[in-house]
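Write out the bound-state structure for molybdenum atom.
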Amino acid sequence: MQYLKDRGYVHPVASEITPRAVYAQRRQLIQGLALGAASAALPALAAAPRTGGRTPLPAVRSAVPGALTMEAPTAYDDVTRYNNFYEFGTDKADPAQRAQKLKTSPWTVSIEGLVKKPGRYDLDALMKLGAMEERIYRLRCVEGWSMVVPWVGFSLAQLIRRVEPLGNARYVQFETLADRAQMPGLSSNVIPWPYVEGLRMDEAMHPLALLAFGLYGEVLPPQNGAPLRLVVPWKYGFKSAKSLVAIRFVEQQPRSAWQATAPQEYGFYANVNPNVDHPRWSQASERRIGEGLFAKRRPTLLFNGYEAQVGSLYAGLDLKKNY
Ligand SMILES: Nc1nc2c(c(=O)[nH]1)N[C@H]1C(S)=C(S)[C@@H](COP(=O)(O)O)O[C@H]1N2
Ligand SMILES: [Mo]
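---
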């Protein structure tokens, strides 16, 4: 488990916060399970004392098919210091430097539109709608880099079922915080604020679509979209909207902030697709963050490697037109 060497991070296992050696063991076990070599349940593991000032968020390993990639997680420092969160600036280092004072409590998410149970839901209530799971997903940015992140959260579908969308709700729109007092990036007009994104209802209901509250066994750092964000692992990273404040059920396909900015470059679907180039660059390969400048680029996989799980959502759809 070479990739955990020199890393002092803690990880959640079976509702415990555990030291890195145990995490390494667990990854071996996951790999063993995948190979059919072992079928034992996770052993009971001792809790380790926490270090640093971060808040643990216990979780159990996800049982959703495809939710645990076998690839090595990207180092915590890279996951939390190489970010896109334009509300805090367009440089990759800006969010980590400028988002630390983001006020995430109190926090409410407004559930709106074509839904039986609209209203303002506070964070604590939202966190109780599902059981926290760890999911290790690849995240592929449209810019040509990728990471592997151990997220903590539960399927967005759990929230959606609870609020009971109406029959004519065909899409879900996500709106994220736009607060000039806290977010220096809003003074630039790179995209029309607030940042909005959307999914078709069946995409939003797919069990892999994650409502994330944490990563690496702890609550989300502000730069990664605290206190809650979307993670849609088969789509380019920009679909995974951070710091959500509203979830809206609508009939018409919503227009995302990136479509409004450059529709020829960023379509509504945004499925990771090595066969559809960005107008300004190839999407055939990607650079894994943390591997260094001389590492070989990896081939990008259709639907970011989640084709077996999500491919059927797009049967019959022209993926070149619907990029
Ligand atoms: N509100 C908001 N959400 C956002 C963005 C943003 O600028 N603002 N950037 C997106 C992009 S382009 C990517 S690649 C991912 C990055 O998530 P990460 O920094 O946690 O890796 O967040 C997405 N969500
Ligand atoms: Mo991105």
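---
Residues 84, 141-143, 237-238 surround molybdenum atom (ligand 2) (CB under 6 Å).
DSSP finds eight helices and 15 strands in the chain.
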